[in-house]
């Protein structure tokens, strides 16, 4: 195999209660990447369509991730990367993570799969560090593993693949405003009330249980963030109105996707997810802020060869 | 049915990472209680053997719990309670909880089971409040439901029953010192570092996952408490030495049982659990503090009619 074309999906990190550890993978929406073996050694970004991003390998999230793998594998060839960027950078649905994990996934395939998914996550985290300043895995893991993932720990890196209820659909609204990950991090307190932390870890445990027993109602009750959302929701206009409307109409839960500004809702069944999408579309139409919405199934495969 | 005799088990709350929400039920060690219907209306504690505890209904944990149920059910009879107390009060393995949950379980049986286990938990929490000053359910839930439980929330009360790996054994060491629950609560900070809370909720989620997929190794890695143990372990002489020895010999994990002073370890298989017991027995023999140890399977049934 000399070249490979992949679909690298958007992802939702945090999932309300699981700040920095939980994530799930979206279907339909994602970047496309074409990676080609070359005789010239090195990693070369040869084309980026969709958004204006740096072509220099060391300045590009996909480039840095690919380099991390490349320097470890030391193959007797190089790689050219073409990126067809569909996920807007800074949207909060894992744009940098899609580039980072897509690059390492594709090169691993072309090299005959010398690395497992956890090792690929480690390489892609180098790209995330370039994008956000910290090596987090909560978007990388669902992109590479698919479905719901839990980052048990980053040192050593330990990713758990959680089950995904089959009728679960996500609705996303992306208000076209900028929320910098660094700003969204800076707004958080260093210390939190113990009683709130207890609520949060009880919800994380309950969410994992709900996924295992396929209990949609319980899942909905666990999608509650008493720690991060009260701060970060201030950065997203009409967040409360969107959340209230989504839940009133029948969404299981609704929260901030990653560090925002995108908002996600989870619903049982496509019909309900579409109703939720229509409802939050109506709510946001009144804000005067540009936005788009979409609804999709949870993607249990992660990155796909196309 | 006019009378019933039950075994009400000891329990381990918190389970390292799950402060205030996780618990599991022990086998073999527990109180026995005989509850008898009477024509005289009211709740009467007629006998307590084993430890010196108040006979007055309103001052007794079992009495208060029974009264809470009794006042709700308003039956056309009364109940006499005999308590054969085997679990030492203040040991940290759910002594008050065994009395509280045993009383409500038995009376519910004699009344033809008008209440479900969650409702019984609510009544028994009144007894816990008498014992510790707060209506917590992390010992009550495993006593009534058996196995591992997660208190999703107390308002409204929502108890989740988690799966129990079949080869899981607990080892308990009870140093005969007094650690008051109130003191063990007071030593905790009101605020905790966000980064520690993240570690904790990732462990809670991972522990629930480990129970579902029967992964003993992962379970061991989740038995880690970065929040409460650093404070409370100061109240238990040689805690660190016991923990280190238990894990070195092969225990999956080791931590404080409830608010202490008892220490629990979990092991895969009875043979390993017994080796762990012998090891920590040796460690504690050097302290000059009286103690006892025991090893048992996880009790997946909870309270049993005998």
Automatic annotation (TrEMBL), chains A, B:
Residues 67-147 form the GHMP kinase N-terminal domain. Its main location: cytoplasm. It is an enzyme of class 2 (transferase). Residues 208-284 form the GHMP kinase C-terminal domain. It catalyses: L-homoserine + ATP = O-phospho-L-homoserine + ADP + H(+). Pfam families: GHMP_kinases_C, GHMP_kinases_N. The keyword Acetylation does not apply. It is found in: Cytoplasm. It comes from the Bacteria. Pathway: Amino-acid biosynthesis; L-threonine biosynthesis; L-threonine from L-aspartate: step 4/5. Catalyzes the ATP-dependent phosphorylation of L-homoserine to L-homoserine phosphate. Belongs to the GHMP kinase family. Homoserine kinase subfamily. This is Homoserine kinase. It comes from Lacinutrix iliipiscaria.
